Request: fold
Amino acid sequence: MLGTSCVSQKKYKAQVSSFETLNEQYTKKQNDLNACETAKANYLKQIDDLNKQLADLNKQQAYLKENNTLALTQLENLSVISSTQAESIRKSMESLGMKDAYIQGLQTSLAQKDSLNLALVMNLKGAIGNMEDKDINIKVDKGVVFIDISDKLLFKSGSYVVTDQAKEVLGKVAKVLKNQPNMEFMVEGHTDNVPFKKGDLVDNWDLSVKRSTTIVRLLQTQYGLDPASIIAAGRSEYQPVAANTSAEGKAANRRTRIVILPQLDQFFKLLEKK
Reply:
């Protein structure tokens, strides 16, 4: 009896183990089937969406064909413009394209000039070094480079004789300007509005011109700048940068300005190009 019981127990355990294995396999297959059903449903939905999109595209295509045909028919029937007029319109459009290209070329040239001006300003500031801003100012305004030097740095009061300190500053400026052989520049003398008369000087006009020509001669004779590229000008008191109602304002107005002139001849050549 014991032997028979033991054999039955072993068979029972084997059957249980086999059942568990089959049950696991069934569960796995069931999960796989569910996943396939979900994927199938998704694919069917995608196919349905694509069919709807295809139908919409077919409608749009038919609409465009219908309207294109209608437009062509109307043009043929109406004959709104002649072939000569059509050619004229085509040439006008080409001309507009050429003008656009020309304007873009001018804009490129102006941008290049602005870049050169900026480089010139940086070179000047680098050459002059640690001069106080109130004594010397370098800037670009409307495409023109300006160098303003306070008269207290260049001349003694009421004089047009250049100081030793001025020669040092002007030498640094001249070194940069000499590396710009194609540029012209103007040296302007400016005064405040205090009436002036001394020795051979008649008035502020006289003083401003004398100071300008003194600087020009110095740039030419001592620093080798081409005199053909220099203009001397006196502005007297009539282009102030500050109000002449205070000592500080008057000091700001007593200055010598070096103006780097734009190369207008090159700009006009651009305008002449077709």
In short: The chain is about 65% helix and 10% strand. The mean pLDDT is 75.
